[in-house]
């Protein structure tokens, strides 16, 4: 399991049980306590968790940083963000379409809206209506496999002619991302 995956699992456990000791985390993840300390350092720095006398727990919502992706925990970049609005009107910020599609699939039943930005026009669009371009030679140094969003099929195909890749619709893009992420490689999000 990659460090990013361990951090995601850790946050999931903390949401379920409230707090965990370092020894418990080490046992659950089958890693050394030193690895646990290395894994939790970014979560502490980002204000997502706090140290307690017995280990760690989630930081109060008011202390959590809104500058990180809800999925991969990277700093948010404004070039191609995703937003998910839940039925209870909570807004989740995600760094890119890759993370947005994966997070959407995780909480699909709780989602009211999912919006993103057109890669060329930088306009806000419905993610369900967007066209997704995957596997381009254009590298944004974000999560892999990289996904770009376009409002129009024409723009997606024009970009594809110059930089390659495959154009997909919403459900196809989700299926493809999930298929790749469920392989042996795991999430290639770069911290």
Automatic annotation (TrEMBL):
Limits of the HTH deoR-type domain: 3-58
Keywords for this protein: Transcription, Transcription regulation
InterPro entries referenced in this protein's UniProt entry, alphabetically: DeoR_HTH, N2O_reductase_NosL, WH-like_DNA-bd_sf, WH_DNA-bd_sf
Highest taxon, organism lineage: Bacteria
Pfam families: HTH_DeoR
PROSITE patterns: HTH_DEOR_2
One GO molecular-function entry: DNA-binding transcription factor activity
Protein name, UniProt field: HTH deoR-type domain-containing protein
Organism listed in the record: Neobacillus bataviensis LMG 21833
Organismal lineage: Bacteria, Bacillati, Bacillota, Bacilli, Bacillales
């Amino acid at each position: 399991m990659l460090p990013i995956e361990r951090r995601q699992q850790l946050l999931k456990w903390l949401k379920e049980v409230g707090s965990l000791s370092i020894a418990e985390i080490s046992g659950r993840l089958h890693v050394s306590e030193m690895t646990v300390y290395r894994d939790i350092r970014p979560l502490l720095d980002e204000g997502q968790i706090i140290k307690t006398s017995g280990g760690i727990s989630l930081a109060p919502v008011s202390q959590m940083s809104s500058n990180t992706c809800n999925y991969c925990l990277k700093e948010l970049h404004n070039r191609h963000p995703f937003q998910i609005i839940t039925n209870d009107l909570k807004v989740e910020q995600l760094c890119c379409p890759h993370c947005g599609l994966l997070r959407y699939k995780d909480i699909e039943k709780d989602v009211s809206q999912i919006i993103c930005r057109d890669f060329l026009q930088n306009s806000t669009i419905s993610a369900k209506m967007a066209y997704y371009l995957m596997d381009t030679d254009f590298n944004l140094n974000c999560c892999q496999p990289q996904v770009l969003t376009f409002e129009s099929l024409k723009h997606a195909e024009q970009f594809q002619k110059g930089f390659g890749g495959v154009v997909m619709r919403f459900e196809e893009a989700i299926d493809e991302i999930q298929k790749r992420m469920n392989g042996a490689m795991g999430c290639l999000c770069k911290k």
